[in-house]
Structure formats: C-alpha cells, structure tokens
Amino acid sequence: MKGTRATTQTVPLPGPTQGETIVAIATAIAPQQGSVGIVRLSGADAVAIARTLFHVPGQQPWESHRILYGQVRDPVTQQVVDEALLLLMLAPRSYTREDVVEFHCHGGLMAVQQVQQLCLAQGARLAQPGEFTLRAFLNGRLDLTQAEGVADLVAAQSALAAKTALAGVQGKLMAPIRQLRSTCLDVLAEVEARIDFEDDLPPLDEALVGSQIAAVLTEVERILATAESGELLRTGLKVAIVGRPNVGKSSLLNAWSRCDRAIVTALPGTTRDVVESQLVVGGIPIQVLDTAGIREADDPVEQLGIARSRQVAQGADLVLLTIDATAGWTVADSQLYGSVCKDGGSRGPLIVVVNKVDLVDANDLTGLSLPTGVYVVHTAAAQQRGIDALEQAILTAIHADQLLAANLEFTVNQRQEAALIRASIALKQVQETIENRLPLDFWTIDLRAAIAALGSITGDDITESMLDEIFSRFCIGK
Fold first, then answer.
1. Predicted model pTM
2. CB distance 53 to 39 below 8 Å
C-alpha cells in the first residue's frame, strides 16, 4: 500500500443556508420576571427586517456596533409593540460572523413574543436549538470545544463549573488537542514518506517516533483524567436523606438549605413525598432529596412515599443515613442500612448522620455501635449545628477535595472523553505495532484512527449527524 502526505479526512459539512435569516428569543422569559428580554436575528436579511420593524427618532446612524433607541412597530398597522433598544453587529464582527441584530425589549412574556412574531412575518425562520452557535462553528468563529463550552457556561450551576466552561470558550482545551493532532499528523507524514520514497530517504528514526507517540499518549491521558471532575461539575451530585420517621431528616434539609423547604412536626410520617433543594457545596452543584421516613406503614399514601424513598436512595450518588442520637443505632436502622444503603445498591458512598446530638450527653455518642468503614457526622439540625462538618464529609466522601486542590484549568465532557479514549487506544496500538516491528503500513492505520478521534473533539473531523446530536442539546436562542 502506497501512502500520501497525511491529510485530514474531514467530512464536508453544510454551511448556513444562504439567504436564510433565523430569529429566536435569546433570554429566559417568565411573567413578571426579567427587566430586559432580547430577540436575536442572524442572517443576510437581519438588518432589512430590523429597518422594517424599528423606527428611530432623529438622525441615529445605522452602523455596526451601535445601539439605537426607538420603537418596534407592526409594519401593517403601525401599532407600537414596544419601546426598545436595537444593537447592530454586522458581519464578520458578530457571534455568528453573519449580520446580527438584537432587539432589547422590556422583559416578561408579551413584548419579546410579539417582536419575534413580527420578525417571522417578515420572512425570518425560527432558529433551531443551538443554531446561532452552530453557525458560529460552521463560519469558523468557534471550534467545537468552544461551542460546547458555551453550552456548559449557560448551564453552569456553580462558580467553579462556570470557570471551567469559560476556559473551554477561551480555547484552553482546543489548543492542546490541536497540538497533539498536529504532532500525530507530522508522524504520519514521516511514516508515509518512507512508504512512498523508501529508497530516497534515510531510515525512519523509530526511537524518535516512539518517544513522540509516548509524549502524545501521556498528554491525552492527562486531559482524559479531567473527565470525572468535569462530569461532577456539570451534572452535580444527587444526595438522598433517608432514615426512620422523626429522626430529623426534614429539619436537616431546612438547616442545610437555610429555609423551610420541608414541613417539620412531631408526628411520624409527616413527609409523604420527596422534597428537593438545590445547593452548591465546595463548587459542586448538589440536589438534596428529603425522603419519607422508612417504616412499616398501613396508610396507602405513606406506603407510596416509602417506596419512592427506597427508589431515591438506590438512585442517589450519596446517601445520608440519618439516625436519632437519643435512640442510638437501632435494629430498624441496621435493617435500613442493609436493605437501602448497602445490599440495596446505593450507587455511591454513605454517610451516617447522627442527629439531635444536643439532646444527649457527649459520652453517649462514643458508645454508639455504628457500621464500620462509613463516614459519621454529628448534627443538631434544629440548632443549625454540624452543617459545615456535613458538607466537608460529603466533599471528602466523593473526593471533591482533590478536585478543588487540583485547580483544573479545563475539563472534558462525555463526548470528548469518548474521543480521547479512542485516541488513547489507537496510540497504544501504534506502540504495540512498533514493538512488534510490523510493516509501516500498519502504523498508519492506528495513527489515522488517533488523528480522527482528536479531530472529532475540535470539529476538524466531524460528521453532520454528530453536529446534529451535539447542538440539539443547546437551548433555543444560543
């Protein structure tokens, strides 16, 4: 088999449809919320549509990167729809590298919806999810890691998640990936040159090639190691508070969330359904689920709540098994530990929360017979005590303290992780091929596989179906 100079095998991708102008509401809308709402247009007719709908007083110039003041009017009835600002960003100095116009309207529901309808009536098309960012990618404004960073930044639930997402937007993942791919392309070119011109070139320096492949593999695995942290920052942690009735689960949730999320009474079985609260602990988004007390019950409604509690516990990333310090570790607690938290298969670690410690003597706590090998935290939820210790125990249990200490510059998502795994496997196969002294033709097969995998991360090697899958997860208007 004769080789040629190494080139990418990029699948031709469609550019934005010529002449199509898209529109979408680019801000979250809700009744009586949000002082400003933005309607965004992008495409060849964006400015023409804006001129038809937006009437400006005086001699305000329609120039790029200028903000105009005026009124949005229905061109048929001349009825004023809103008093607004208009922002012009002409190609190529815009997010999509097309002409982009933004109507900055009053917030809420009606103004932005009416402006969007007027844009549609003038020939714009409603944008698909992520289509503005897709156009930015197809027009060379962003690479695929930057585009995915935009989506992560919009969805970020903590400052740390936003920081790593912004690193992706700024190209901090793109740069090393493209450098690794470039190195692989250079190696492939050297190998293929020896295949084509074996008699005209000196022998291939196999030791140098081996060291280059090893260096690329080391860097790939270093980047790959950020995947677990990235998933934790993006999706957060699901924590279930479980225990017998009246051990203080709802009080613990209220103390932790610093608000009365759950009803607290002295009556057993007060909590009938799962109560949820969203928190951030050490930069990690946490979904806390307060469950119904688990016990034998005759009430059908309470039975449903208990069944749901077991499901939540078994699907949680971490379980807080809460017990009453005044009762100690009871037979019922032991049974619950075995059925829900251990043998029942909770997916993550477990912390035993000994609550109501303010009602017992400190010496009584040391005599508690608790399961070995579990984290134990003492709290007095009704007194707002022990919450800091609980949060630290959670971070330790999920090894998040290592994440925070690592001070990650960027992280990779699941799609990028899968591509890096493919690249790692291919590079290891190259090493094995070299060690077994197989013909150079075999080297090129796995080198090309590694190059394609790395290219799929940045979008240098990507298919239309993959783009559809990626951008379908974006919000409309971004």
1. 0.79
2. no
